[in-house]
Fold these 4 entries.
Entry 1:
Amino acid sequence: MGVRAARAGGGPPIYADRILSAVHNLTSTAGIVALAAGACALLALLFCAVLGLKLRRVRAAQRMVLGDGEQDLVAHAASIQQQFEALYGYVQDAAERLDNRMELAERRLDRAVAYRALIRYDAYGEMSGRQSTSIALLDANRSGLILSSIHHRDQARLYAKEVLEGKPELELSPEEDEAIRRAFEADGRQQSS
């Protein structure tokens, strides 16, 4: 429909008069519908503006997580999963290496001196001031050696006897037996303390 010609006095066209009179009359059905439509449009525009701001914040947060690349969220999650699996594999490998090193260190420590005792005595009863000694040096498996140094006025002799799992290879003197007993007793006292 075209706009009708203007009135003879230069006022608005007749067709526009009819529309404006209907809109100006807000109590009519057309006026109420126009107001409701305008209010809905205004609310929709406000809602779109709020959603636009929220979307801008979400995209900024997404850029912060994803970086400036062209990667989407699913690809980024898959990449993180791959990196996590690689890290998990590395940690498992490192833990296995550490377990192996710990086992080796424990085996080496088991062979270190764990029990020791020193006994001083006068081997010949000469009142020489208890210059003779027997020392027990044993590992965690109760293996090691007994060293006995027997001092006399003119000479000194050194004897070494091997012990395997608490059993000597040769018969021990009473002082050497005492050294082994004290070595194991000293460990028992330390563990109970």
Note: Residues 43 and 49 are 10 Å apart (CA to CA).
Entry 2:
Amino acid sequence: MRTATLFILCIISFVLLEGCNEYKSLSPEIDSKKSGQIVSEPVYTCKPSIPSISSSTPTPTPTPLNIPKVKCLSDKDGDGINDLDDIVEGARKDAENKPVYKSEYYSGGYPPDNEGVCTDVIWRAFKNAGYDLKSMIDNDIKSNTKDYPAVEGKPDPNIDFRRVRNLIVFFNKYSKKLTTEIKPNDIKNLQEWQGGDIVTFSNPEHIAIVSDKRNSDGIPYIIHNAGPYTMEVDNLMRWIPGITGHFRFP
């Protein structure tokens, strides 16, 4: 009877060890056969199988705001694309070209295509819509020098059209002036911010093109060059409260 009991216990122990055999730990254990020395022996432990849990509820997707787009009837270059869309397209081309930020004085006024500052994004965007912004500003400064205090009575066509202060004067005179306030998720307010608009800032003086791309709160991106090169970015809110002007041309 005793022999049968021992035989049964041996079989049970063998089954248990085989069932746990695949789970090993290399933690050091004390080997009683080696006078209490610590040796690395595999220890067999049984680990429960944990079923993976998958959520059957999908993550909700935010509903984008439907910001109405203003109708622009002007098409200066006659390409079938209205001026505001052309201005965005031109600014976006400059961002794709990635001209590095470099402030220099250039004979003739224009920097090479691979260089520029914030104001160069503006005339390049306008050029894509058929406007010669340099000539327009140079002519207005020549005829109304007193309106442009930054030139200090001495117009310089090589640089005047690339100065933020002069652009602010020009757009104040010849563009529609719009709100400088931005309210996230406020459709009425955000409708005033349209792709192709121009926005100016202080501290430091800066200028950018408003993009037709918006974030989930309805805030438009801006296309500008504040270094290292021209970019289309979602950071308009970072410039608050430094917005000094918001214009739509013509």
Note: The chain has a mean pLDDT of 84.
Entry 3:
Amino acid sequence: MKRIIFLMVVATVAALSIQAQVVIKPSAGVNFTDFSKNQANGEFSARPGYQVGGSVAFGKKVYIEPGLFYVRKSTKFVSSTEGTDNINYNISGIRIPVTIGAHFIGNEKSMVSLRGFAGGSAFIMTRIEDLDKDDFNRASWGAFAGLGLDLSIVFFEAKYEWSLTNLKKDITQIDVGKSRTIFLNAGVRIAL
């Protein structure tokens, strides 16, 4: 019985994906990351980072879009205490977003379309400069929302992501909180 249900689900998903519009979307962009904790002895300030990768959108007016990006996030802690050094948080890793979106104006085939989207993401840290990587969580989870503008085969996206997990493992000594990131992307849409 379980096999029959599983095969029916697989057949339904396959049938829907055959009918769905498929768009490959390579892109690159900049990001600005800040941390949520307000420290008593200084403040965090966002610095530019970057991302490069791509996603695949399945659907027409409403779509689902999984993606894979290499991301470098950068934040600077500026100390207000004399004798305390400033700290640069340069974090690199793999970001895996899953987006659900809808076209408000136009659709996937229009010359101009405006769309809104939201979703969740996983960030797997691969490197952190000048700090001990073992002090940080290797994986973090996030939620995001944004808008996209499609102009023929070119697209532009802006999204804001809230981290759902703390950046550091041990928050009793130094708690930087959760990351908050603005992503700005541009890329091309390749319809299949």
Note: The longest strand covers residues 87-105.
Entry 4:
Amino acid sequence: MENIGLVVEKRDDGEVKNNASRRLKNNNYIPAVMYGLNKKPVSIKVKEREFKNLLKGRSIFSLIFDMQVDGIKKETVLIKEFQRDPITREFLHLDFLRIQMEKEIETTVPVHIINEEIAIGVKDGGGVLQHGLRELHISCLPKDIPEYIEYDIKNLDMGIAIRVSDIEISDKIKILNDHEEVVVSIIHPTQLKEEELVAEEEAEEEEIAEPEVIGKEKEEPEEEEKEQSKGEGHKKEKSSREEGHKKEKGSKEK
């Protein structure tokens, strides 16, 4: 896959502050940062519509960008992390990692399970499909990053688990997950019910051990407010001590 061109802009000082994200969003930008290769991190902003168009039909972690900052400096990057709104699924923040095309990198790729409906254990055995890992941690050259890793389970029977060691992949790619981790399995419905009951019991025990706190949690005061509170506390303490000395002195004089 060829690298994708992406033009971004540096954020000014006012756009780096904590309360600037909403303002950027209102102007159709996504706040982002670029770092890596022992270079100084750069706070940038990405045009939201342009970025979404580039993502259409592609896996976000397999994309490699030739990024231009303010149309001048070119950096080769990939998306290391991102944050999304849990309800709207809109991007809230992007982390871009600088890379070198000739050096291996670590990233994650999604696992696509196919033929779930016709798997022997589901169709003939009445089993329930249970997903384990939904993505794999891999190491390879940037040009060898796959969009996803596919696994066909049409012949998977009841009680059988597919583990990381069962995944066949190009010898150019190394899977870094524990080889015994389960990717997908087909279990009997009663086993699933038992697991759900155990999970519910554990959740109830946690609720009993940690009683719910009613009311809104207080926000942490800003550093400046904290220092001011400390100063007022010291003044009150000093004042109390002085009053105590005066009372003590008055008692002695009497």
Note: The first strand starts at residue 4 and ends at 10.
